[in-house]
Design a protein that fits this description.
Blueprint lengths: L9 H11 L7 H7 L4 E5 L2 E4 L4 E4 L2 H4 L8 H13 L12 H13 L4 E7 L2 H18 L7 E5 L8 H6 L3 H4 L9 E4 L4 H4 L5 H19 L4 E6 L15 H11 L3 E5 L13 H4 L6 E4 L11 E6 H8 L14 H16 L2 H18 L7 E7 L2 E6 L14 H12 L2 E2 L1 E3 L2 E4 L7 H24 L6
Parallel strand pairs: 3-13, 5-6, 5-7, 7-8, 8-9
Antiparallel strand pairs: 1-2, 2-3, 4-10, 9-10, 11-12, 12-15, 14-15
The structure holds pyridoxal-5'-phosphate (PLP).
Length: about 475
Amino acid sequence: MAPKDNHPPTTEMQALDAAHHIHPFSDTAQMRAKGARVITQADGCWLTDSEGKRILDGMAGLWCVNIGYGRHELAEVAARQMQQLPFYNTFFMTTHPPAVALSAKLAQIAPGDKNRVFYAGSGSEANDTNIRLVRHYWALMGKPNKRTIIARKNGYHGSTMGAASLGGMAGMHAQGGMPIPDIVHIDQPHWWAEGGDHSPEEFGRIRAAQLDQMIDQLGQDNVGAFIAEPVQGAGGVIVPPETYWPEISRICRERDILLIADEVICGFGRTGNWFGSQTYDIDPDIMTIAKGLSSGYQPIGGSIIRESVAQVIEDGGEFNHGYTYSSHPVAAAVALENIRILEEEGIVDRVRDHTGPYLKKKWSSLADHPMVGEARMVGMMGALELTPDAPARAAFANEGTVGLMTRDRCFANGLVMRHVGDKMIISPPLTIADSEIDTLVELAWKSLDEGMATAKAEGAFTA
Ligand SMILES: *Cc1c(COP(=O)(O)O)cnc(C)c1O
């Protein structure tokens, strides 16, 4: 065990952090008032903060620590690779053993004829690559006007200019002049919030039909691709109605546009199969991967590409694109070891056959809580819709307030559960034990009780 106090006192770290560190997606004023939480170590599904408090990580970091914390095998592989070859690039017709082995492995586990990989350092970079790939592909096919990419409102594809433009987060677009040109958005298949009086099945078809309509509006000769997450993660674990993906797949095929499945969260076991595309029977041309690819132990992302699409790129001369850390040897070696563990320990099968169903059963019991309108779960990613009036599927007047209050109670009770507006979401390590699932759901119920009490006391419990 590492020493528990091999760090400066918490207040000292908080002061230095406040003085010198700009945090992603954080309100600096709020954070400074409270002091940033300092996490110092982790094991299994449990984090430890600088005060020695243990917290159950219901989010697997940021949806990524699929095999759990503290797997020494990954540390050993990283150390060995750093000593043997800490860095070399794969530009200019060069390769190295970890890049070779990981690519072959990904080609093997990816469904069907998706057997080429282009590497990035993150999911955002991989989606930027996808924009380049799609446009270059169509140019090589003699259809340079097929530039526009259709994406979805409230989708999340990352934080670079390209990826955030593909994403449909209004708050992100408002800062920095996005989306960039030739990216447009259609509505999401979020039945609970937007389905009105339609049945989920009807609503799935209606939202899928928007893709057809958008292609008509833009002209098929101007549209290159559609990108979506099989299940939207950061948008609040939006589970599409069953009718949605079959329609989307059909439209992409019939209208001759590429389909990109952003598997950054759904990939590597999260939905009970290796890829969300398998869970939803989607056959994408490109899959974006990151997060669970290395269980977050190293930063790495990539695009897995259908052979026929890749061949066009390969036959087109030099692809003028690449990152210094594309197929970084240490990251690739760690990802390969992570996949070995997922495979040899049967973790993906176990999510499908046992842990996922168990978590879903327990999670569903939270729908009995008076503040919960819906408790949904696919594999091991789930959400609760908080509402002041469940039968009416009503939203809170001041969106996000009750969610934040409940989130704060979760932290106080030793559980990391995120809020997206008034949705509470979880995505725990795939290796979580049944007893830990029981604890997670108990802490969630307690936090819901306390969040509701706070909301009522502060007059926030209104539609
Ligand atoms: C997190 C995420 C990304 C971005 O990945 P980064 O590694 O943060 O750049 C892209 N797509 C989806 C679906 C994600 O959840």
